[in-house]
Amino acid sequence: MKRLLFFLLILLTPNSRLRADEGMWIPALLDQNFADMQARGLKLSADDIYSVNHSSLKDAVCQFGGGCTAELISSKGLLLTNHHCGFSYIQYFSTVQNDYLTNGFWAMKQDEELPCPGLTVTFIVSMENVTAKVLAGVYDTTSETRRIALVSANAKAIEKENTKDGLDAFVRAFYYGNEYYMFITQTFTDVRMVGAPAYQIGDFGGDADNWVWPRQTGDFSLFRIYVDKDNKPAKYSKDNVPYTPKKFFKINANGVGENDFTMVYGFPGKTTEYLTSYGVNLIENVSDPLKVDLRTQRINIMEQSMLSNDTIRIKYAAKRNGAANAWKKWQGEMLGLKNADAIAEKKKKEDEFMTRVNANPLYKTKYGDLLPKMDSLHKDIYQWQRSLDFFSEGCFQVELIRFAYSFGTLAMESAKDTPDVKVITKQRNDLYNAFFSFYKDYDLNVDKVTAAAMFASVWKGIDTSLTSFNTVTNPKGKKVTVRNSFPFMFREANKKYKGDWKKYFDQLFSRSMFIDSAKVRSLILNWKNSDWKKIKNDPLFQRVENLYSYYYAVILPGWTSRNNEITRLQRLYMAGLMEVCPEKKYYPDANSTLRVAFGKIDEYSPKDGVVYKWYSTLDGVFQKEDSTSLDYAVPARLKQLWLAKDYGPYADKDGTLHTSFIASNHTTGGNSGSPVLDKNGDLIGTNFDRCWEGTMSDVNYDPTVCRNITLDVRYTLFIIDKYAGAGYLLKEMEFAKPN
Length: 739
What we know:
Layout: H1 2-16, H2 31-39, H3 46-49, E1 61-64, E2 68-72, E3 78-81, H4 87-92, H5 100-103, E4 105-106, E5 114-115, E6 121-129, H6 131-134, H7 144-162, E7 168-174, E8 179-188, E9 190-196, H8 199-202, H9 206-209, E10 221-227, E11 241-242, E12 261-266, H10 277-306, H11 310-339, H12 342-358, H13 361-367, H14 370-380, H15 382-393, H16 399-405, H17 408-414, H18 421-440, H19 444-461, E13 468-473, E14 479-484, H20 488-496, H21 501-510, H22 517-525, H23 532-536, H24 539-580, E15 595-600, E16 604-607, E17 610-612, E18 615-617, H25 618-624, H26 636-643, E19 658-663, E20 675-677, E21 683-690, E22 708-712, H27 713-723
Antiparallel strand pairs: 1-2, 1-6, 2-3, 3-10, 4-9, 5-9, 6-8, 7-8, 9-10, 10-11, 12-15, 12-20, 13-14, 16-17, 18-19, 19-22, 20-21, 21-22
Helix pairs in contact: 1-12, 10-11, 10-12, 10-15, 10-19, 12-13, 14-24, 15-24, 16-24, 17-18, 18-22, 19-21
């Protein structure tokens, strides 16, 4: 038996090793990869990258707005991130008269910088393994529901204990709940917009080029952190001053070359590298296709409406871009998984795992029936996953439906015999704040067309037989069983309106007070507890409440119970991989926590006969130029500079102006805006995308085609200085010496 196991270990090890460029590594645990990083050219120490005892690179990286990454590039709190990360604020400040989306925005002095309400940036102060504390008492229960409750309670206690002195704390699961880490953070709330290029630069290529190489997009924007006189986070005040950071990045404007070491430092959102073949199948053949279909319809509706007038164009610019980003990524993911034959590749790894398991009686007892159970569960969750996607990507994408439902808590609390004044006050404040952003960027006709399309698709494709039974107490105090049937809206539209969804929503919306912003504003400002009846009697709210009730009573619990069991088995599978195949290094999946990825600048070949070089240039902009296309129109000023070859000190040695480059760093959503660093830890660019053929790297990393796309910092400097005339900003930056 020992000889057999040894032979299997030797046989299987080459196929099980982590590929060199793969992984999103916890900065505090870089030691396990540091020799590899140094062999590739890194000149820093692990302490230079992450330290809690002195300033390090981590202190120059922050989570921007909760969904992107940004980096500090000056001693005055200047932040660099992507144009698409700052897009909602560029859109927020834009009007038809001051169209910053189209023309760009540049504050030529600090008092012209624009305060961004609600925008926050968060830095990691420290991180700590708290697995033992989080899992205390967990092994005494066999119930997954009980385990989830215990883990949650333990994590909240740890967070509460460590939230103090102006710092926050959160606990996050790693390796599907086999390990847990606590993160201490500091958040800044006075963030102001400093500059953004014209749309035709910041989003050059639009959807056509999104997730595609080569790219020539100037995808950047600039913001600044402001603090109180003691350099501490503070709410917006005219008296606040620019933040003096512990660390900021030097700029390397000397250029980069093929095979150069690169490192990405940021907050990747979510990956699922260790999914089974059954999980990959659910993504590739069930969830992604359904979501793409629904989102295609919604994007088409927005685009057609945006072409009709500039007011709608500005209102829906951020919504449309936000919808399109994931939409195209899902398409690339499906294509990549198919081309890589990812399901078959996963099955091979599972077969290797089971060969080792079956050769060891102890492993067989622990893991022998694991994969058959996973197979059965994924078949069982099929319709529940489709229903979940139909509601989240279909029904709940109707804006007025979401907005109307947001009034439910206020109505419910006000209807109580003794309402909680604090709850009501908070709800009114939250709704009043939401009121402005909602109606500012809302168009009723766009929403009605969207509603008709989404509900027609949901009705056509969803399983209407999914139900649940709940025991409730009726007004007479008697317990009765209630059947949660498919939502009334669907039955009403098909019975009364013969499936004419356009007519249905025309009538339904016209009878609701929520289409009248003046009425809604007055209701919030002059709220009386008896006004709960106005909400409850509104015909749209009644139907929306029933819609959400079905989702929360039937779909979500049904999906969650099955998904919890899949998660339990996935946790066991993860533990099994680490125990049965210990020779492999396992990086934790991304979960919006700070990570380091490393690789090299490298070309790639996506298919036979095609090889993409590692950089793009401004020349490529004018090869694509098309004045009749929103995606490929070019500002006149940029063309003048190109024709004159007036690139200043930002040109490459070959005389061209490089716009972007690609490298083999493992990135995902959330890495948008991440600093891309050279061997000395100096900034050489800003991460903004991935190549189309490698978008499946969230599920299945392939080193031959997975490339992250980086905006060359020299193009950023060129746009700031030569194009926008905001060269004063460069004076507060620090530059690396020439090579």
